[in-house]
Amino acid sequence: MARKKSKPVEESLEVQQRRKRALELRLAGKKQYEIAEIMGLHKSTISSYIQDALADVTREKAEEYLELELQRLDAMLAAIWPDIVSGERGAEWKIDRALAIMDQRAKLTGTYKAAELKAIADARGTVSTETSSMVGRFFDLLEKAYDVDEASADAGDDE
């Protein structure tokens, strides 16, 4: 039987480095066609590199990335929120941006999926105890978080 030909170690290392670079550029916000131009490769190659690199990312790294993205979204919202609540003239566009930020955050945290599951469960009327418990706990946590944010806002009004 013929032996499978293997690539030289240097070639494999080079591919891994290109995958890493492609993923870094994508995480920095570059589009795939931009990465392809920067790296001098075809867009489909970049797409493959990014998919392969993401497949190699551990759950821990994914959680770190999620946390970083949530922090970025929170910082963006915090930057425009004072103008929105003060009713600053000309800040109407910031409301749209705030809604987009909130939408992205809800997608990342799975809020929409939980609400969808609860609505389906309520519509069906019969829900497994486990599902009911999970969804119920989620909404209890959301309610507590909202109460804490509301209390903080009220405390800030007193000052």
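the 2nd protein, sequnce then structure:
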Amino acid sequence: MAKKLRIELVKSTIGQKPAKKATVRSLGLKKLHSVVEQEATPAIVGMVATVAHLVKVEEIN
């Protein structure tokens, strides 16, 4: 079974560059404190690393 990540948006995207906003949006996060569960694929892990200062990540099984 593949690992999953629980991703929560903990900081607003106001004032961020458009690329960072688009990355947060493509992760499935819309509002502050919204939570999504994503598979831990290399693409998702890379997106999370890009916006690591805006999100909180937990690994779940």
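The chain has a mean pLDDT of 96. The helical segments are 18-26, 42-50.
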